[in-house]
Amino acid sequence: MSIATLQWNTVCAVDDILPNTGVCALVEDRHVAVFRVGEADFYAIDNVDPKSGASVLSRGLVGNLGEHVVVASPLYKNHFDLATGACLEAPEYSVRAHSVSIEDGRVRVALG
Fold first, then answer.
1. Cα separation of 57 and 46, whole Å?
2. Pairing verdict, β 30-37 and 9-13
3. What are the beta bridge partners of residue 48?
4. d(Cα 35, Cα 40) in Å, to the nearest integer?
5. Are the C-beta atoms of residues 94 and 83 closer than 8 Å to each other?
6. Are 12 and 105 in contact (CB under 8 A)?
7. Rounded Cα–Cα distance for residues 82 and 11 (Å)
8. pLDDT for 38-60, tens place per residue?
């Protein structure tokens, strides 16, 4: 599916997400964690921690593990690659990654 045919959902203003933090948004009845890394890089993954079933990944710590930009789950400390949703410690706990775009100062997400 091309980027033009994705269904984009506006979730918030860019300035609503502080650099190196995340927020949770409900996108098409799915809990999505949207992260701002630095000033201009945005990522979105499922917000539900697959190990616990709790909707908490948006509250995790953002950082790097090697070449991976990750969030650490606040519950079990598993690291999720923000670009792919892969769980680095246990691939069976990986989550879906979603497309993010910025338009007119608004953050938009399309489910992946």
1. 8
2. unpaired
3. 55
4. 10
5. no
6. no
7. 18
8. 999 999 999 999 999 999 999 99
**The overall pTM is greater than 0.85:** yes
CA dihedral 11, 6, 2, 20 (to 10 degrees): 20
33 touches 23 (CB < 8 A): yes
- In terms of C-beta density within 10 A (0-12 exposed, 13-18 middle, 19 or more buried), how is residue 40 classed? exposed
Rounded CA-CA distance 86/18 in Å is 24
Paired strand residues for 2: none
pLDDT tens, position by position, 56-99: 999 999 999 999 999 999 998 999 999 999 999 999 999 999 99
81 Cβ partners below 8 Å, 6+ apart?
68, 69, 70, 88, 97
One-letter amino acid of 80 = F
60 and 77 Cβ atoms separated by less than 8 Å: no
User: Which candidate, 97, 92, 102, 50, places its Cα nearest to that of 70?
Assistant: 97
